[in-house]
Each structure stands twice: as structure tokens, then as C-alpha cells.
Amino acid sequence: MPVTVLLVDDEPLVRAGLRAVLEAQPDIEVVGEAADGAAVIPLVRQLRPDVVAMDVRMPLLDGIEATRAVLRTIDEPPKILVVTTFENDEYVYGALRAGADGFLLKRARPAEIVHAVRLVAEGESLLFPASVRQLAAEYGEDGGNRAARAVLERAQLTEREAEVLRLMTRGLSNAEIAGQLVVGTETVKSHVSAVLAKLGARDRTQAVITAYESGFVSPG
């Protein structure tokens, strides 16, 4: 089954460019488009895309609020890939904190766009880990977030789960973590699932942000 994508951007040229790049792939299908975040909810309900590629800055409802709305109102929500002009943008970090699964630069090369969509759809690795770390260092609270510290304390991660979380912050995939720990991939998947459940994180990105903001690891 192809990965289905909904494009949300107020610039028709950006949507057309993304559509052309993605539909050139046999395993990706663009199922719809919207010009503003305000149109996302009904389209997600109708089309049930696997991934929403969403502009972070839009006139009526921006990508941060649209992300919150999707996660709040949609059962089994799609993955959300924020599309942005500027990498080091407080709006991007805000969208990631709101629940977006990753971000993509509008100037990215076609191969990077395709890779980002596939990676976010699979959910087994962190997209652009160095950039997420940089955003956390600049806009996160770097250990000063009481809520994040409380979440980590309540989680009571085992030693192995804590080790897995540290490797997740480096952007390693399940297979790469398995290689580092010399265990099977299925074992890693079980540890990752346990980490996400204990942290109340819907995906790796949210778990990594909690790790940075609680002071569990330093983004610096």
C-alpha cells in the first residue's frame, strides 16, 4: 500500500512542487490539498492520509494550532510533517512540541522530501536529529521545564529503557539501536514502545523533546 499524503500550504506553487516530487514515487500517493490549516480536520476525516505535510505559517490557522487540532480531535491521527522556509524557527519547535513528527525545509532537494515522508510514515527514526537538538537548545527550556521533569520522574525508566532513549535522541533507528546494544530489533521495538508509553509520548520526536527539556540529556 502506498503512503498517502495530504498537502497543506497557502502557496499553490509549493503544493504543486511537493505533489510533483511525491507522485513521481511508486510508493507515495498525494490524496488531497488544502490552502490553510483551518481546512485540515474535515480533509483528514474524509481522506485518512498517512502523512500531512503542513506549512507552519498560514493566514487563518497556522501549523502549530492545526497540529494541536488534529491530535485533539482525530482518532488514530496521521503523522504530521511540518514544512517550513527557515530551519531555525521558533514556530517549527512550537509545532514539534505540539505533536508534529518532524519538519522539512521548502528548499529541500527532491530526494530529501521523499526520504522525509517515508521516514515519518515509518516512525522508526528521528528526522533531522541534529536540527531538532539545535532547536531544543535555542527554544527549549533545557532542563528547566518542570512538567517535562515530572513526566520523566513518573516514567521510572529502567536502565535499558534510559539507554534506548539516549540513543533515540541521537536519531538512531531501531536497527541501529539494536546494533549498538547487541540485541534483536524486536527487542528494541519493545523497549521503544515502553519508553513512549511511560512518557506519554505519541512518537519518538515527543519523547526526545521530553528528554531534552527535562534535562535527561543536554541539547547543547
What does this structure look like?
- There is one protein chain.
- This protein is 54% helix and 13% strand.
- It has a 5-stranded parallel sheet with strand order 2-1-3-4-5, with helices on both faces.
- By secondary structure, the protein is an alpha/beta fold.
- The protein is globular, with a radius of gyration of 17 Å.
- The chain contains 11 helices and 5 strands; from the N terminus they run E-H-E-H-E-H-E-H-E-H-H-H-H-H-H-H.
Topology overview:
Blueprint lengths: L2 E6 L3 H12 L4 E7 L5 H8 L3 E5 L7 H11 L5 E6 L5 H9 L3 E4 L4 H13 L6 H11 L6 H10 L3 H11 L4 H8 L3 H15 L4 H10 L7
Parallel strand pairs: 1-2, 1-3, 3-4, 4-5
Helix pairs in contact: 3-4, 8-10, 8-11, 9-10, 10-11
Q: Which word captures the global form? A: globular
Query: Helicity level, as a percent range?
Result: 40-55%
Protein structure class: alpha/beta
Taking pLDDT < 50 over at least 5 consecutive residues as the criterion, the unreliable ranges are none
Task: Report the β-strand fraction as a percent range.
Answer: 5-15%
Amino- and carboxy-terminal Cα gap:
40 Å
H/E element sequence = EHEHEHEHEHHHHHHH
